[in-house]
Amino acid sequence: MREAKEKKxxxxxxxxxxxxxxxxxxxxxxxxxxxxxNVSYEYDIYLSDCDTHEKILRWCLHxxxxxxxxxxxxxxxxxxxxxxxxxxxxxxx
Length: 93
Hints:
The chain has helices at 2-26, 53-63, 71-84; strands at residues 28-31, 34-38, 42-46.
């Protein structure tokens, strides 16, 4: 009985992680010449400011200190910036 409850709890946690990721993906998008992160409020980044892996890393180091940024936000930001600029998306995302 306990094992079944643990499996159910694990399933619920995994599903919550997927839902969170889907929610974040809907809030990070390209609009005009900006990459918009709209998690807590609208935060615009010029696409030209994240057109290399180095610039994306610099933005990640800046964004990580924001209280509304978590790993999901950083992962989606990296993926969107890389995809838009034709850069290789890291395999770990």
